[in-house]
TrEMBL record:
It comes from the Eukaryota. Its EC number is 7.2.2.10. Belongs to the cation transport ATPase (P-type) (TC 3.A.3) family. Type IIB subfamily. GO terms for cellular component: plasma membrane. This is Calcium-transporting ATPase. It comes from Durio zibethinus (Durian). Its main location: membrane. SUPFAM superfamilies: Calcium ATPase, transduction domain A, Calcium ATPase, transmembrane domain M, HAD-like, Metal cation-transporting ATPase, ATP-binding domain N. The chain crosses the membrane at residues 188-213, 225-244, 375-399, 429-455, 850-870, 931-951, 999-1020, 1032-1053. Residues 142-213 form the Cation-transporting P-type ATPase N-terminal domain.
Length: 1077
């Protein structure tokens, strides 16, 4: 069957290639658990290893969006249990849902008797299919008798008007199932406070509160403890709100993934509907790669094979025929074609029950998440060491009498200080140390990936890309090559027949039947109408003819209709005996028909040069049979000329079949191979599929970005070459020599080593099968490329699975291809693929911006507190202030920087290497300049602030110290606010470019600034600060603003190309190598 929507590339699954996803990486460090460059299909041991190695303060939050290894196992156990005890579980679930009033409207509890307008009860009908009760089906008169009971026409389907649909939903339920509710906001609040450091702070705050009230009374004593409580509460609420918003975005995206669109027959026409709108009685056409949308019974089928592994757990292909007609929802069509009558929907199917019982979204990790967990762990260990050191220094200084309060009085004098006071002071010291841990361990760093991915995924939906796997969104930023289909991706998929040859005569215009003999038109019409998965609907009121099917089918059907084909009449005049569905290995499809006069005709349709090779004769335009031997070269020249004009060449041929060679029964048909030699050529048609207008620009953008575009197509190599030149994939005809342009069979014949060498040079591969595509992907990956692949056919699944990023087509793609892919391109457009590359690079760039910003805060805060603690026994930034800084840094900073939209600049640089360090030399330079500046200014203020600010003259020393510390805190926050602008553009001097268009960034910066004013001016009791006059506000702003010119000057300093990390890791690697040797 030609033009199955996937003629470009379909082949049988590749054999003998079990180890599809090769995880071998020569640069991988086996001793580093965070060195996972590819999480797609990664082994469970690897995933467990990095989790165990990570330093985590709040596991439930940190690992929320990673794969839940325990839940995965539970899910498999639940599947096995449902398969074994489906009946009991269904009854229990219905009982529970009825109690909770959660049953989907129109999903009644099963009734054993006749159901309203239908002479069969819901339970009778659904149990017949579920339990494969063939004898019960026979009692109703088989599928034909059952269709009468369900008021369905097996050829035209149900009426499909609103009243009919409502009636069916009320009687038999809707094709939906109750889903497990997502986590509530309260659950996120609960998870947010599970952080070990926050729990310690809450305990410390409680102790401080109790001691404060005891020593200073309720009016004054609650401030210290109460302020920490308030700060921790604020951190928890902001964190939970941010996490909850992300979770809602993921829920919406999951809903999009589940909403499959499919075709059904209603009132004689093919209509596209959502899987949720399928009702009992619907007639659903099935073809390779489709998901069976509901339980049903086979009406007709040819070579129909079903993959039931999703339901039975056994990867066994089951053949369906009239003796084995029952079809289960959720299974996939592995081969053949057919139509089914829907008999069970929603929770009345095992698939619906399974979906209602398990939580689908168990998360996954991305390589960047794993690497950031490594970074967070390293920083956390350093921070922990610093916190312990500060704690030790402060305690030693305190108990040796070297610590003084702001008034200059020694805080601890042995034998004089009360136990309560000393205990309270020790709690404060301990609180400071714990807060340093909160600031030092960048718990928000791995979560920033999820935040930026959630944002990017939402935006990518608007750019016509639905992300199925998070990691693909990120990996796309590293893609070095895109292997693209031609049909529908580089072209519009709007096909029309523009040239036709019947015999040696060119029919001009191609649809003028007056130039052809009636017998030729009759044979062409028969071949097109019967050898097709498409449909022609002619409305009775004389409206426009509606043609459905794949673009190739529609083009050929439309041409035949113009020639005078009466679709329904021709279909009724002969009976289909056997079908050979379109096969990409053979590039053709065929059908055997028995006419009313008992003659058996075989019609073939497929790739022109392949069908031509099987022909021994041809019909001329007068209907006379001619030998093809002398004219074979003429037809080859016709095909070449059409192909050179970017036309897809399809040939139609037929032959008579001797009756004695036709099997007598259905069993004989199942193994019958349609005769495919000695064919008679009927016609060669040239189908025009214009290039998309935006493709040339999109290909150029890819080339500028260092991403090589390769075209892999099942079409004739000349057609492929012409389209590649038109799209800009090939720059000139002179380039088009082997191996730049190669045929699939030539590439396939090479040895593995030769394929690796040749793969790099290939730009266009014509006449390729999916197994050739898989070989190309494997060869490119072994050569170090990060490969993105587009695919739409069922047999593209291995290549989509093997590639670093599998891109399936939303319009022409089969469900099997979509499930094997990582991203679905909703409009099948190559320009959308390029937008995905932009977003992938944006994800990486945004994470780097956030890392630079966060590490600057980390380094500055730690150094300031450590130096101050060691030298003076006191810290200028207290617990509440550090918690506020942590909030700016972790949640608000991530929100501001992780949601920066992609810029054109991203597509003017090379792809990010998989092993490129996360913190580049440019980032180190920017980070160190800002951190050094902040540390220097703030330490100078800490030690000489009283003199510089002329506060020594202040009679109240305690007030003077409080003013100085408030200024340090205020200036520190201002530095972070202004540095947030610098972090937006790590490499560009102008960091303000496009800032006004990013409303979220401006909103967060404004919100932070206003909150800081409120904290200083009105919440001094909580933060241990005092009000600042306008001059000191100007000083704070001035200290912050200086970071802008400083950053601009810093960006002029050149950096070495060798990553800074390499200087530190090389000695260790040498040491390890020598030890292993």
């Amino acid at each position: 069957m030609s033009g199955n929507g996937h003629d470009d590339l379909e082949a049988g699954p590749s054999k003998g290639d079990d180890n599809l996803n090769n995880h071998f990486d020569p640069d991988a460090d086996p001793t580093d658990p965070f060195d996972i460059f590819h999480t797609k299909n990664a082994p469970l041991e690897t995933l467990k290893r990095w989790r165990q190695a990570a330093l985590v303060l709040n596991a439930s939050r940190r690992f929320r969006y990673t794969l839940d290894l325990r839940k995965e196992e539970e899910k498999e156990q639940r599947k096995r249990m449902i398969r074994a005890h489906a009946q009991v579980i269904r009854a229990a679930l219905l009982f529970k849902l009825a109690g909770e009033k959660l049953i989907v409207p129109g999903t009644p509890v099963a009734s054993p008797v006749a159901n309203g307008d239908y002479a069969i009860g819901l339970e009778q009908l659904s149990s017949m299919t579920r339990d494969h009760k063939f004898s019960v089906l026979q009692q109703y008169g088989g599928v034909k008798g059952l269709s009468g009971v369900l008021r369905t026409n097996l050829e035209k389907g149900i009426n499909g008007d609103e009243a009919d649909l409502l009636n069916r939903r009320n009687a038999f339920g809707s094709n939906t199932y109750p889903r497990k509710k997502g986590r509530s906001f309260w659950r996120f609040l609960w998870e947010a406070w599970q952080d070990l450091t926050l729990i310690i702070l809450i305990i410390a705050a409680a102790v401080s509160l109790g001691l404060g009230i005891k020593t200073e009374g309720l009016k004054q004593g609650w401030y210290d403890g109460g302020s920490i409580f308030l700060a921790v509460f604020l951190v928890i609420v902001v964190t939970a709100t941010s996490d909850y918003r992300q979770s809602l975005q993921f829920q919406n995206l999951n809903e999009e993934k589940r909403n499959i669109q499919l075709e059904v027959m209603r009132a004689g026409r093919t209509v596209k509907i959502s899987i949720y709108d399928v009702v009992v009685g619907d007639v659903v056409p099935l073809k390779i790669g489709d998901q069976i949308p509901a339980d049903g019974i086979l009406i007709t089928g040819h070579s129909l094979a079903i993959d039931e592994s999703s339901m039975t757990g056994e990867s066994k292909i089951v053949h369906k025929d009239k003796k084995e007609p029952f079809l289960m929802s959720g299974c996939k069509v592995a081969d053949g074609v057919g139509t089914m009558l829907v008999t069970g929907v929603g929770i009345n199917t095992e698939w619906g029950l399974l979906m209602a019982s398990i939580s689908e979204d168990t998360g996954e990790e991305t390589p960047l998440q794993v690497r950031l967990n490594g970074v967070a762990t390293f920083i956390g260990i350093v921070g922990l060491a610093v916190a312990v050191s500060v704690l030790a220094v402060l305690l030693v200084r305190y108990f040796t009498g070297h610590t003084k309060d702001p008034g200059g009085t020694t805080q601890f004098i042995k034998g004089h200080t009360k136990f309560d006071d000393a205990f309270n002071d020790v709690v404060k010291i301990f609180t400071i140390a714990v807060t340093i841990v909160v600031v030092a361990v960048p718990e928000g760093l791995p979560l920033a990936v999820t935040l930026t991915l959630a944002y990017s995924m939402r935006k990518m939906m608007a750019d016509k890309a639905l992300v199925r796997r998070l990691s693909a969104c990120e990996t796309m930023g590293s893609a070095t090559t895109i292997c693209s289909d031609k049909t529908g991706t580089l072209t519009l998929n709007e096909m029309t027949v523009v040239e036709a040859f019947v015999g040696k005569k060119k029919i001009n215009p191609p649809s003028d039947s007056s130039q052809l003999h009636l017998s030729v038109v009759s044979l062409l019409s028969e071949g097109v109408a019967q050898n097709s998965t498409g449909n022609v609907f002619v409305s009775k009121d004389g409206g426009a003819v509606e043609i459905s099917g794949s673009p190739t089918e529609k083009a050929i059907l439309s041409w035949a209709v113009k020639l005078g084909m009466k679709f329904d009449v021709i279909r009724s005049e002969s009976t289909i005996l056997h079908v050979f569905p379109f096969n990409s290995e053979k590039k053709r499809g065929g059908v055997a028909l028995q006419r009313s006069d008992s003659e058996v005709y075989i019609h073939w349709k497929g790739a022109a040069e392949i069908v031509l090779a099987s022909c021994s004769g041809y019909l001329d335009s007068n209907g006379c049979l001619q030998s093809i031997n002398e004219d074979r070269e003429f037809f080859k020249a016709v095909i070449d000329e059409m192909a050179a004009n970017s036309l897809r060449c399809i040939a139609l041929a037929y032959r008579l079949c001797e009756k004695e060679k036709v099997p007598a029964d259905e069993e004989g048909f199942s193994g019958w191979v349609l005769p495919e030699e000695n064919l008679v050529l009927l016609a060669i048609v040239g189908i025009k599929d214009p290039c998309r207008s935006c493709v040339k620009d999109a290909v150029q953008i890819c080339m500028d970005a260092g991403v090589k575009v390769r075209m892999v197509t099942g079409d004739n190599i000349q057609t492929a070459k012409a389209i590649a030149l038109e799209c800009g994939i090939l720059s000139s005809a002179e380039d088009s020599t082997e191996p730049t342009i190669i045929e699939g069979k030539v590439f396939r014949a090479l040895s593995e080593k030769e394929r690796e060498q040749v793969a790099k040079k290939i730009t266009v591969m014509g006449r390729s099968s999916p197994s050739d595509k898989l070989l190309l992907v494997q060869a490119l990956r072994k050569g170090g490329d990060v490969v993105a692949v587009t695919g739409d056919g069922t047999n593209d699944a291995p290549a989509l699975h093997e590639a670093d990023i599998g891109l399936s087509m939303g319009i022409q793609g089969t469900e099997v291809a979509k499930e094997s892919s990582d991203i679905i391109i909703l409009d099948d457009n190559f320009a959308s693929v390029v937008k995905v590359v932009r977003w992938g690079r944006s994800v990486y760039a945004n994470i780097q911006k956030f890392i630079q910003f966060q590490l600057t805060v980390n380094v500055a805060a730690l150094v300031i507190n450590v130096v101050a603690a060691i030298s003076s026994g006191d810290v200028p930034l207290n617990s509440v202030q550090l918690l506020w800084v942590n909030l700016i840094m972790d949640t608000l900073g991530a929100l501001a920087l992780a949601t920066e939209p992609p810029t054109d600049n991203l597509m003017h640089r090379s792809p990010v290497g998989r092993r490129e360090p996360l913190i580049t030399n440019i980032m180190w330079r920017n980070l160190l300049i800002q951190a050094l500046y902040q540390v220097t200014v703030l330490l100078v203020l800490n030690f000489a602030g009283l003199s510089i600010l002329h506060l020594k003259d202040d009679g109240n020393r305690k007030h003077a110290v409080e003013v100085k510390n408030t200024l340090i805190f205020n200036a520190f926050v201002m530095c972070q606010i202004f540095n947030e602008f610098n972090a937006r553009k790590p490499e560009e001097i102008n960091c303000f470019k496009g800032v006004t268009k990013n409303y979220l960034f401006m909103g967060i910066v404004g919100f932070t600034f206003i909150l800081q004013i409120i904290i200083i001016e009105f919440l001094g009791k909580f933060t241990s600060t005092v009000r600042l006059d306008w001059q000191l506000w100007l000083v704070s702003l001035g200290i912050g603003i200086i970071s802008w010119p400083l950053a601009m000057l810093g960006k002029l300093i050149p950096v070495p190309k060798t990553p800074l990390a390499a200087y530190f890791t090389k000695p260790f690697q040498r040491c390890r190598t020598s030890r292993n040797a």
